[in-house]
Structure formats: C-alpha cells, structure tokens
Amino acid sequence: MKLQYTNVTKGKDGKDVTETREITAYTNNYERSDGIDTLGQEFTFDLADNPFDFNMMGTRLAIGGKIEFSNQVSNNNKSSTTTLNEEPKEEVVFQGIIVSEKQSGANKYTYTCFDYCFYLNKSEIEIQFNGVSGLEAIKKVCKENDVPLGNVADIKTKIKKIYQGQPVSDVIKDIIKQATEETGYKYRLEYREGKVHVEDYKDLVLDKVITQPINNYSRDLSMEDMRNSIVAISSKEKSKSVKSTIQDDESIKKYGLIKKIIKVDDKKQAQTAQIAKKTIQDSNKIKEKLSLTLLGDDTVRSGRVIIINDYTVDINDKFLVTNCKHNYGVNHTMTLDLKRVEAELDTSKYKTSTTTTTVTPNATNSTANATQVDAGMNALNGYESVYRDNGCVDVAVKAGSYYSPFLKQQADIGTADVDTLVNNAQNAGYKVETFNGYANKGDILVYGNNDHVVISDGAGGAFGNSSSAGHAMFYSDANYAWHNGEAPTKVIKMS
Fold first, then answer.
1. Sign of torsion, CA 341 347 348 349?
2. Looking at 105-214, which runs of residues are DSSP E strands?
3. What sign does the CA torsion over 288, 291, 297, 301 have?
4. How distant is the alpha carbon of residue 253 from its chain centre?
5. Is residue 306 part of a domain?
6. 72 φ, ψ to 5°?
7. Are the CB atoms for 123 and 167 separated by under 8 Å?
8. Same structural domain for residues 313 and 402?
C-alpha cells in the first residue's frame, strides 16, 4: 500500500511550489467507502505528528491538499497468511482532496478526503432544458461545469425542466430519475478514473463469483416499507384526481392493504401507468438487507452486482452492493450491504385501471363573482330537472356553471348525486366544512347526511330545486330550502 500527498504552496519568491511526498510510513487505518445514493467515494486515515520525534515532526497536512492511495493487486482476496508469489503491482484506487482534519490527543490526526465529485456535490448550477434527451442534458450539464464524461447511456427521455441553485450532481440524478420513471431502466451515476459515468446497472455486473468464507454476517427481513396498492394522482396542489391505480390482490389478501399515493405531473400523463407499475415493482415485496464482511477486493464498490456462493449461510444469488467499506490493515477486508437482485415482478396479474378524467378546482380560487352567480340562478329559475325530485345536484351544478369551472365540469360529466359532488369537491381541494350559519354567495349548502344541496345567495337565502314545486326556485330563508326549519349541515366553500 502507498499513500501520497501533494500540495501547492507559495515560495519565498511568490511563485507556486508543488510539494509531493509519500506519507505511508506515518499513516494507518485506511478506510475507503461509498454508497449507492451518493456520488463519489470517501477516504479516511490517521496520521501521527510528534513534535518530539525528528522523524515525525511537521507531518500535518493542509486542507485542500491532494491524496492518492494505491494498493497492491496481490492484496485482493488475500489474507496476511497467504503466500504471495506475484510481482508487487500497485493500482491507484483513490484520488481526492483533504476536506477536514480532526485532532485526537497530542499527536494523532484523522483526515477525511473525498474524490473529485466533491465539487459536483457542492457546486450549484442554473440551467434550463426544453425537451432535449436525457443524454444531451447530461452532456450539457457536464460541459458547462468542465466535468469530463466517460460512458453515458443513450437516455432518450425528454427533459423539460428548469434547475435553479441545485448541486450539479443533484441535477444529473434528477435526469436519471425521470428516465427511470418513464422507462423502468435503472442507471448508476458514478465517478471513476477522473470521469463521470452514467451506465445501465446490467453493465455493472462483475465477472466473478465470491466463494470465500463470510464473517460478521447479518440478515434482516421487513415488510415495513411494503406497498401493495399504488394510486397515482395529479401533482396539482388543488387537484387530487386519480389517474391510474395498480394493486396486487394476492398480496393484499396475505398482508393487508397498504396503499401508497404518488403524485404525477400532468405533463407525464402518458407515462402514469408506467410510473405506477415501476413503483409497485419496487415496493410490493418483503425487503431484505444483508450485511457481511469478506476479504477485500478493490474492484467491488457500491453499484456493482456480484455473485456470492456460500451454502454455509444459504447465500447463493446475485446481489447489488448498496454500501461498500474497504479497510486496509493487516488484512484488506470489505464490509458490504447487499440487496438481492430479483427478477422483475410480473404485474400482468395485478388489478389496474387508468383514467384521464380529472377534477379541476376553481381556476381563480377567489370569491365567486356576484353578477355571475345571479346570472346562473336567474337562468335556471323555473327549470324542471330530468331527475325531478332528485334534481338538486343537477340544478346546482348547472346554475353553478355560470361562475365556477369546477361546477361546470361536474355539469359536463353529469354528476347528479350529492355524495359524488361532495367527494369530487374534496378531491379538487375545496373545503367542506360544518355549517356555522354563514356562507358566501355561490357556496353550496348541504343538508342532512348528503341528502340535498342548494346554492347560497350570501344573504341567508338560497336557490335550488324544490321537490314540492317541481322546479328550481329562490328561497328567502335557507332553513326552509329542504325541510321546514332545518338548517344546512355542511357547506362546500366555492371561494
């Protein structure tokens, strides 16, 4: 193993002076780690600085200095007791910068380093895409931030979004997320050999089977994150219309109904079913988490798929490495968090439904225009509903269409019962409140247990269908618009 330090300082003449030195002799406890949800690797080590020892004085390192760590290839999958007959060959496994120093006692310093993704994670960007492919969007992000590109998958998903003040890495991650939601393909964002790579997970399978003994093995099973029913709704703040549903009746029968609501941008309506399918594929399962320690192999890192074959602990399958930590001591070991690679779920047996019918709230979200409310009531005065005695909703939505886009929509789709009207109003974001004796002009008054509705005139009276008269009419007192002396129980606030 070899650890090298490089730093640029100012000489006495004011010119840059590059200092390069090997610091292996007075450092130890090397640890390299990364995770599937983070871009880049972390490297930590301890350094001794003894002011009373000539050989170890003045060894401290500068924040921002560069670190390069190399490991002998022959150390991979080998213990200290293994006879090594190979020629020593070193490969660089980490390059990065020192970002922090921690002192413990008089002469021990712990340094934390990150690879050059540190700048992508910290630097923010402002950029807009108007329908370019995911591939072109990633190229543009990297070009504007002088980021060298390696392998990048041909992501065809169209990106139309504005990013303001977000880290460069988060923008790339969001582009990948959009592509995965649309297509179902999973991609790995990774930094290696000085370049950013975006690759399909199927291209990151390591061509090796691990059969060595396993230490510190643990296995957790949980249904805590299980979801067996997915309901996709509009992402609009005041529109909760259901666009697509998918559920596994067999799982529901076995584990109970566990529903997840996801919000989908209306611009992605065509992909709604795919997004719901992808969500249930990820969540409709017993989650398994494996953690184990093996002899180290520098080719293993998070995002790789490995094959483990060890019948002593009943592990014989493909696994995705979600977290990876390498420790370089007497032996090179690695501790892995693993997720079993499962075959894609067959969702053809699931119960699904998709609809394009939406419930739209009042576009202005403001108090109904008094003139328009009067116009609607006057136009429907004397109107005989085809529903006769049950025509209260028919009258209310048709008169309401003069001042409320929501009520117009209800009229257009033929809403004719109180329960549906109340539910649709709630789903559209309108408040349905207990009646306290006051209502604005244009609000919908509800009587009984969703038995009757009228429109408030804002002055204590109402307008609506009269069963006894057989037509729509005005009421000077809203308490007599249904049963004599019976006040409304609820009000749908249309403002």
1. positive
2. 108-115, 124-133, 149-152, 158-167, 187-192, 195-200, 205-210
3. positive
4. 28
5. yes
6. -70, 135
7. yes
8. no
**Closest to 377 measured CA to CA, from 455, 467, 491, 470:** 455
Listed residue (301, 296, 304, 289) closest to 337, CA to CA:
289
Sign of CA dihedral 479, 480, 485, 487: negative
pLDDT digits (tens, 9 = 90+) for 304-354: 888 888 766 667 788 889 999 999 988 899 999 998 877 656 666 777 776
CB atoms within 10 A of CB 138: 25
The reply to whether 210 falls in a domain is yes
Residue 224's identity, in one-letter code, is E
The number of beta carbons lying within 10 Å of the beta carbon of residue 308 is: 21
What total of structural domains would you count in the chain? 4
- Answer yes or no: is 364 within a domain: no
Q: Quote the DSSP letter at residue 18.
A: E
The Cα–Cα gap between 322 and 302 comes to 5
- Structural domain that includes position 297: 205-358
- Tally Cβ neighbours within 10 Å of residue 401: 20
Burial of 396 (0-12, 13-18, 19+ CB in 10 A): buried
Distance CA 71, CA 3 (A): 9
Predicted TM-score (pTM) of this structure: 0.61
Same domain, 330 and 396: no
pLDDT at 81 over 60: no
Same-domain status, 280 and 423: no
Angstrom distance (rounded) from CA 301 to CA 315: 19
**Tens of pLDDT along 268-317?**
665 677 778 888 888 888 888 889 888 888 989 898 888 888 766 667 78
Burial class (CB in 10 A: 0-12, 13-18, 19+), 54: exposed
Residue 363 included in any domain: no
Instruction: Give CA 288 to chain center in angstroms.
Output: 20
Q: Which of the listed residues 312, 330, 358 is the one where a domain comes to its end? A: 358
Please tell me whether residues 129 and 46 are part of one structural domain.
Answer: no
DSSP-based three-state secondary structure for 165: strand
pLDDT tens digits, one per residue of 40-72 = 899 999 998 876 666 666 788 999 999 999 998
**H/E segment holding residue 27:** strand 27-35
pLDDT at 59: 83
313 and 231 share one domain: yes
Cα 146–chain centre separation: 27
Q: Which of 337, 358, 379 finishes a domain?
A: 358
State the chain's mean pLDDT as an integer.
Answer: 84
